[in-house]
Amino acid sequence: MLVNGEPNQHISIFDRGLAYGDGFFETIYCCNEAMQNWLYHWQRMRESAERLNILLPDESTFLVDLEKIKSTFSTPRFEWVIKIVVTRGVGGRGYSPNKCETPTRIMYVGDMPPYEALRRRGMRVSLLKYELQTEPMTAGLKHLNRLPQVLAKTELDGTGCDEGIVLNSKGFVREGVSSNIFMIKNDRLLTAPLYDCGVAGVLRRKLIDVSSDICGLSVEQVDFTFGDIMSAEEVFFANSLLGVCPVKEIGNTPFKIGETTRRLMEACLQADTSQVNESKIKEISG
Questions:
Q1: What backbone phi and psi angles, to 5 degrees, belong to 119?
Q2: What is the pTM (predicted TM-score) of this model?
């Protein structure tokens, strides 16, 4: 684990990420020692920093941190996870960020969850009672205030299902507990808009960019209800670690794993061609 580029497992009790959730994070799938979809993650980090008005270190700083992390591996790793956390930094008491001058950056390694079997069999899904509240100023951001997801996951754990469908306060579908939701209906590929709440996932953004090339359908962002989902031909969830994962059952209603979902799933399992170039990393790290 690195804190501001140095081996460390401690942060200040006055760090605003701990005190107020004042920051953002990325969870990145790594394969063959390369971060996948890095350009999408970096783009979201820049947008998060801009919207939260947090000073973001330049890209090369994070790439050097990655090389330091990799240098600690005793043997090569095929699949693993990097988590990057950026907070506003250490400040005094109170909500005002005016005393913060230097952000805190944290990077550490985790194991890749066993999602391959889940993709093969398909997800069992439940509609959750927990609703996301309207927060337009932070909608779409992967900020550190994840208490709504903690509460939704607590409810999901009691169902025995793999993922849950979360609505907003007006009854429209917004996302899963830890992934974005998509459906195929009447030859349309739909996902929920995130103007009021929810997290704009990296794979969601990538699918918006590339789905038409893969399956001939462009992603449309439209409001829809749980009833709309139940009459869809195909439903799947997506995030950067999970990939595209089909739904096989919502409640007691079965869903087929259709051809469009399979094509998107297979395409997203391919190595990302926009990842960081290894020679660039080595040049930066000296």
A1: -65, -35
A2: 0.91
